[in-house]
Amino acid sequence: MKISRYKKKKLIIPLFLGILVLTLAVSWISNSLFKKETIKSAKEPIIVEIEKGDNIFKVAKKLKEKGLIKSELFFILKAFKTGTYNKIKAGEYAFYPSQSVEEVLTFFKEGKIYLHKITIPEGSTIWQIADILEKNKICKKEEFLSLAENPSVAESFKLPGPTLEGYLYPDTYFFHKDTPPQVVIQTMIENFWKHWGKFREVAEKQKKPLKKVIILASIVEKEAYYPEEKPIIAAVYLNRLKKGMPLQADPTINYALRDFRRLTYKDYYSVKSPYNTYLEDGLPPTPICNPGEESIKAVLFPAKVPYLYFVAKGDGSHYFSKTYKEHLEAIKKIRNNKESTGNSNSTLISEKKDIEKENL
């Protein structure tokens, strides 16, 4: 039996309207189900870790547990619809409550893995860097140090070695969780070479080898509290080296001890190490930390001063002296000040003075 054109139109119009209503209803329900359970500050990302082997069902469950979705089923259907269900890469993801489900799925599809911001302070040692990396779950401390202390690794980067101490440039970095230590090291060393490029020509003109510059810069980094004193401290050590005097730099002993605490009188004599610059002449075998740009600059552009000695005042600054006599007067002044304020460290200053006298 034939259906008239008029009757066909009567059937099509309700069908079309029905489909439209159904589509709108599904859309409304979907948006309602994907709506976040709580409204949080946009400054507080929600971290979701997707492990290797997690399927779309496991992912949906994790998102539900974090309060990012209301319905696991609808999320899964959306993932299948967009073709994302089998394209989710393992790693940590940071989602903000304001993000839509489509944005969440796009993050997964594009592998926008969360990067941890870590800051390596100027003056950090390789051991301290290893601690920072492990604390932030970037890589294992032992794995990092096994490379950082390996002479062949230093050689592969064309560094003086035998370790990477001094050449892991202190800066702010962004790494994802479980970054291979090789990648971390390469990133830091490439950053070092980038900054060293500013000074390479100057160092070559002054005939100062890379290793010497970085060793001295590392000592300056550990000695100086105020940036303006760095060129003066660098000048003191360069002047002492020219005269064949021992450096007598406390931080070198601290490095030998792997502890940057206040030294005792016994430490100056008892620490038998090539890093003890009270007992050993010349430079220590390696840098004692990873210096920043200002400390490197201070070694290449030292202050034009005749100083050979300096002593800490107690506020982070120093008294600088040209002669040993002036140095003793500075020590006496500090000792008297400390005694008047009840500071027991005056004895150590006096005993340290005797050590310096013996090394003249």
From TrEMBL:
The protein's site described by Important for catalytic activity is found at 223
Q: Cite the record's Polar residues compositional bias ranges.
A: 339-349
Q: Does the keyword NAD apply?
A: no
GO terms under cellular component:
plasma membrane
Amino acid composition bias (Basic and acidic residues), ranges on this chain: 350-360
Ranges for region Disordered: 339-360
For this UniProt record, give its keywords in alphabetical order, as a comma-separated list. Answer: Cell membrane, Cell wall biogenesis/degradation, Lyase, Membrane, Transmembrane, Transmembrane helix
Q: Which domain of life is it from?
A: Bacteria
Q: A Pfam family for this UniProt protein?
A: YceG
**UniProt catalytic activity:** a peptidoglycan chain = a peptidoglycan chain with N-acetyl-1,6-anhydromuramyl-[peptide] at the reducing end + a peptidoglycan chain with N-acetylglucosamine at the non-reducing end
GO BP, one example?
peptidoglycan biosynthetic process
Give the GO molecular function terms: lytic endotransglycosylase activity
The EC designation for this entry is: 4.2.2.29
Q: What class of enzyme is it?
A: lyase
> Does this UniProt record's set of keywords contain tRNA processing?
no
Segments traversing the membrane? none
The job of this chain, per UniProt, is described as: Functions as a peptidoglycan terminase that cleaves nascent peptidoglycan strands endolytically to terminate their elongation.
Per the record, the similarity remark reads:
Belongs to the transglycosylase MltG family.
Query: What's the name of the protein?
Result: Endolytic murein transglycosylase
- Species of origin reads Thermodesulfobacterium geofontis
